[in-house]
Amino acid sequence: KLSRRLQAIADLVTGVDSMIDVGSDHAFVPIYLVQQQKVQTAIASEVSSGPLNISKKDIHQEHLDSQIKTRLGDGLTALKTDDQVDLAVVAGMGGQLITDILKKGQVQLQTIDQLVLEPNNDEACVRKWLTTHQYQITQEKIILEGKHIYEIIAAKRGRNEQLTNEQLIFGPKLMLEKNAVFMQKWQWQLTRNQQMLQQLQQAKILDQTKIAAVNERIKLIEGIL
Ligand code: SAM
After folding, report:
1. Which of 66, 92, 109, 182 is the most exposed place for a label (fewest CB within 10 A)?
2. What distance in Å separates the CA atoms of residue 146 and residue 109, rounded to the nearest whole number?
3. By its UniProt entry, which InterPro entries does this protein fall under (predicted)?
4. Does ligand 1 lie within 6 Å of residue 52's CB atom?
């Protein structure tokens, strides 16, 4: 059984024959998708051989060697020219790293129509890259697992989208839905920023630039809640 986060990621994979899971670790997502017949074939890729070996073992145990291939390599560059994948999942990494993987994988991305991304932070950076590189955000999810809140972004190749600063930060779909987890995340962020402001204002030497930035962030969050 997948964790809530991985299940939410897997649920966004629909209508494709083949996918790659970049930084797959245990290959839980590709194994689930093939077993559920949501995809016919998959590739589990890893930059380091330790996790790749775990993937290989798990895939073998499930007798899925013929449907799930493994690849050692950096991001999407691990793909070979005859690997035809329709969708890439990149999950459980920082937003900057995910953006770097997309940047470095632009040749491979030309034939990949859909993306499902789960950045652990810096979601705005990922959204910015997507919407300036011909991907349109089609669905977003925000979920609570344990003490952590995760955002998952699904995108389709299309045209560039102009997003406002608020849409980049809060998520164009998430800010329309404003579900309970979304409210919890931003309520918590508001408190955190208010505490930060208080500390900045009590410091011996006032950092006005920082104070202005935190104030602006607070106003932005108050505007959405
Ligand atoms: N995707 C899984 C998930 O969401 O549960 C595993 C997340 S795990 C925290 C991050 C994995 O990404 C690690 O196994 C790491 O080796 C791999 N990774 C980091 N940078 C990578 C890159 N540039 N290309 C491929 N894999 C990478």
Report:
1. 66
2. 33
3. SAM-dependent_MTases_sf, TrmK
4. no
